[in-house]
Every structure is written in structure tokens, then in C-alpha cells.
Design a protein that fits this description.
The chain has 172 residues and is of the alpha/beta class. Helix content is 19%, strand content 34%. The strands form two sheets. It has a five-stranded mixed β-sheet with strand order 1-3-8-9-10. The chain has a five-stranded mixed β-sheet with strand order 2-5-4-6-7.
Length: 172
């Protein structure tokens, strides 16, 4: 039997995508930006966003900012049949890419965590902060994630809520 390759959907800054198709993988590359991979394991639907700033000036609803990006992704999941009380999240990105500038990556990660906590969606795993960019592949129907660190920095302190074997993150 011949196995087909999954359809790959790329998410860039200021975008989000949702799918319940088993043949879809959603992917992105992150530096200081953050991506939330949120899914409902019972319904088999999930999605990923990609935002680059923690807060919008004046409370604007620009999807490049954490609050708008999270709201749009969660609402899209609800429209696809997900239930909020079953949703689970995995967070990625938030690296400090330039040491001499403010740590916007950490601010992005903290903003995403606050929003998810307020919405009652648990963060079950992920990989945020540090100094390396990441490539993420997310299978929205199952919540499976693969992560590749981009760069050859020496290991540094990184927030890791759980390790790959525990949280469904595979390193590739």
C-alpha cells in the first residue's frame, strides 16, 4: 500500500490555520514570535497561530498581536466543533534573537500563557524562550508536534514545561 504525503500548510506572521483533516500538517518557523498549537483531541481538530508582538497599542485587534491571534484561533476551533473544555495547547518560540534588544520573545510567551490561562485552556507542553529559532510541524487532528532547533548555539536555560516524551513533542 502506498502512503500519501500529508498536505503541508505554512503559517507566517499574523496568520492562523485550523483543520480537522488527518492528512494535514501545519508548519511555521519562529524566532521571537510565538505559535500556539491548540487542539481538541476528542473532536480531532486543531490549529496554529503565529504572532509577533505581545500587546497592541490602544487595544487594537491586529492578529500580529497575542490577544487577537489567540482569540481568532480559539474562535475558529469552536466554529470547527472543538469544545473549550477539551482544548489543549502547546506553545513554541519566543526566543531572544538579539541580546542587546528587549526580550520581546519572553513577553510574547508570557502573553500567550496568560491568555490561555484566562480562557481555561491548559498548556500541556511546548518549548519557549532561549536563543534559538525553531521549525515546528503540527498535526492538528492528533496534537502531534515535531520541533527542530535552528542554529548551533550551546544549550542555554529554556522553559520546557515537559520534555518530548512526556508532551508529544518530537525533535527532528
Amino acid at each position: 500500500m502506498m502512503q500519501t504525503r500529508p498536505e503541508t500548510i505554512h503559517v507566517v506572521q499574523g496568520e492562523y490555520r485550523v483543520s480537522d483533516r488527518p492528512d494535514v500538517v501545519i508548519t511555521t518557523v519562529l524566532g521571537s514570535c510565538v505559535a500556539a498549537c491548540i487542539y481538541d483531541p476528542v473532536r480531532g481538530v486543531g490549529g496554529m497561530n503565529h504572532f509577533l508582538l505581545p500587546e497592541a497599542a490602544g487595544g487594537a485587534g491586529d492578529i500580529r498581536h497575542a490577544a487577537a491571534a489567540m482569540e481568532r484561533l480559539i474562535n475558529a476551533l469552536l466554529r470547527h466543533g472543538a469544545q473549550r473544555d477539551r482544548m489543549q495547547a502547546k506553545l513554541f518560540g519566543g526566543a531572544r534573537m538579539i541580546a542587546s534588544l528587549p526580550d520581546i520573545g519572553r513577553q510574547n510567551a508570557e502573553a500567550a500563557r496568560r491568555i490561555l490561562e484566562t480562557d481555561g485552556i491548559p498548556v500541556i507542553s511546548g518549548d519557549v524562550c532561549g536563543t534559538e529559532a525553531r521549525r515546528i510541524r503540527f498535526w492538528p487532528g492528533t496534537g502531534r508536534v515535531q520541533m527542530l532547533l535552528l542554529g548551533n548555539d550551546a544549550p542555554c536555560p529554556v522553559e520546557r514545561p515537559t520534555r518530548p516524551r512526556e508532551g508529544g513533542i518530537e525533535l527532528f
